[in-house]
Amino acid sequence: MELKLNKISKQYKSGKEAIRGLDEVFSPGIIGLLGPNGAGKSTLMNMIATLNAPTSGTVIYNGVNIHHEKSAIRKDLGYLPQDFGVFPNLSAEEFLTYIGLVKGLASSYLKKAIPAFLDSFNLIHVRKKKISTFSGGMRQRIGIIQALLGDPKIILLDEPTVGLDPEERINFRSLLTDLSKDRIILLSSHIVSDIETIADNILVMKEGKGLFYGDFEQAISLVEGLVHEDYAEDDQLKLLKKKAIVTDVKKAGDQMLVRYLFKEQEDSHEKGNLPARLEDVYMYLTDAV
Amino acid sequence: MKEFIKIVILDSLQRIRSYQYFMTLVVTLYVASTFVPAPDASYSTVNLGNFRPLYNSAWVGTSTAMMTALFMVIIGFFLVEGTIERDAKLNIHTFIKTSAFGKKYLQMKGLSNVILLSLISLVIFCMTMVMFPIRGEEGSFVFLDFVLPFVLITFPTVVFVGYYSVIIEVVLSGSRVLKVIAMIVSWSLLIPAATIANSSSNGYLLDAVGISLPIAHVKATILNEFNFQLDGMSFGYQFFDRSEQQLFELSSLEYPQAFLWSRLFFILTVVTLVYVISLFIKNPWKKIKMNPVQVKKIDDETIERRSSSKLTLPSKIKYGNSFIPLIVQEITLMKKNISSFQKFIISALWTSTLLVPIDIAHLFLIPGMYVIYSKSIGELGGRSFSNNVSAYSLAYPKVFLRQNLSHYFSVIAIMIAMALPTLVRLIMSGDLSAISRLTIGIVFIASLSNALGSLTKSGRLFEILFIFTTYLLLNKLPIADYLGAIHENGWENMSYLLLLTCPVLLLISWFRMKIYSD
Fold first, then answer.
1. Is ipTM beyond 0.90?
2. Min Cα–Cα distance to chain A from B91, Å
3. pTM score, two decimals?
4. SS3 for B312-345, per residue?
């Protein structure tokens, strides 16, 4: 199973280029999608979901151009967009049944699968309640379940952890890890730690371009020896921000403990000896462009 | 003040920039073109019995202003209703509640309603001027004959309706049925009061719609020219032979001070009422149900079980192409979209269809049930969009086919269920013609709701059109006889028209859904 982005670009009528020549190949596993707002993450997901066509380039799924033959991917797709809705007057169980039927799943399958999902996402006790009475986090879980219904081979999750409490996030991550073995899961999140914990590969995007695609070790190697940590006063911090990329600031008594990295290793700089984190890589890549 | 006006404009823009509003304007354009029928047309909109005015500026300007004012009273509420609830659903109300703007909120909504309705009136006004050279018969184009009736008759009515809608929405918050009933009762009182009001200071105070003055002017002209006392005028689309009508020429309308003061009085009354209500009702969203339930605390045993066991799904995925479960699900959704009170009224009407004469059931009770259900029926085609479910559902395979057919058949199923006692009685009496008329009507309504829903991504336009048409049907106008209940000569032609329209409407919704899904 393979999903190939073949130099895809997307330009809107307004002239804005949302995606610029993205050229990657995704194989089964969890692909973490990182990037600042407007990087093109949601546009990319919409394109893979066939709701948007690329202006140029092709998206090939198992050898088929999905924008020529949409059904090739749609039958294997589970999609949770960033902004999604529900039918508020239906109960959780009814709504998921509705979406399952829309996906073409059999009622007999849904009768068994929906309670299992609801139990797994801690919603079984409210399965008969109207969704209009749900909190944001509960709705989010309903959105995730609808995407996972029907054992999709390609799962697109755009900011799925928004509104989930820490326990539910851990639960969700472990479920996703279980599911990832023979599926391609594209997971976009602003929470770098979510990606860091579960992603097999990471795609960092900015202004529609792919800045990096690779596994965690490859990502870390980009900033190896560049990460520093020091105590600093306000003035020193301002100065540091001009010379380096500040990735974290913590209050430590009267001073601040600043984590930073230099864009390039120069002779004048001492080699950093701190172990790098994905957050450092993200800041390094998105700040350097 | 500047900020307040800015907020009013922004709120209006938010509502105007919708496909639904655009479609409303398109339909308004069409409706406006029918307000002034051709001199030789078989119908009239303002019925003066055996008399017909020459189509000069005074008549065309005055009659369309009167029709627009009546149109606003009947339809206006449905065009602007739900705006306060929508703010709650979009969670905007939390910002308003915590800001200093809260006190002015209802005034803002009133003005915003006025802007929306004024724009619709403006479209009618422009259409009237376009139609004048086509339909006009006599005299030159006098701009003031068009402007003054719209400014002094229609506009105050628009303000009245805009603010009155806010009052109804706040006072009867939480119950849409009560709001609709209140509006129907209101227009049932306002319109007759306006048509019977005298053209005197006291009479004007009965007339919130502003049509008593032009009615008196028309009556006086007929009395002068023909020495005939016209009993009354009726409004709405009416069909009859107009060849025998006697012609008269209407002069420009003059506006006495008492009339102008009465128009101002109605505006000030509703604005003041809204102000007073805003002093007492600080939280107009209070009765709108949206309290989230709390997540139950998970006990240790559950945590233990969930951490040790993995998600156990059925081993084999089963696909099913049967539409029936989806149709059942659509029906469930439609049933859930109506309140217990509506269910109670429908049950009462349904039971009555077993007892009353079949004609009454066919003409009054079945359309009555459908009107109560019209919101649910209308929403079907556009619900995925209005609830943003389409954001992901459109990415699933053959969704347009599955959803479109299930929408279509679920509406038909639920409408047949409501008409079932009547259908059974018709079968028992062997009236196959009535059965076919009723069935054609049901299929037509299903097709129309689906097409308008998918075109406008909302059920509002269907609901307005359907309620309006049913209102005409209850007044026994043959043109509105979508269920074949009046069954006058010529209904056969109408049945062909309805039957031909159905596949066209079906294709419209089909292609529209396919375009969205592609």
1. no
2. 12
3. 0.68
4. CCCCCCCECCCCHHHHHHHHHHHHHCCCHHHHHH
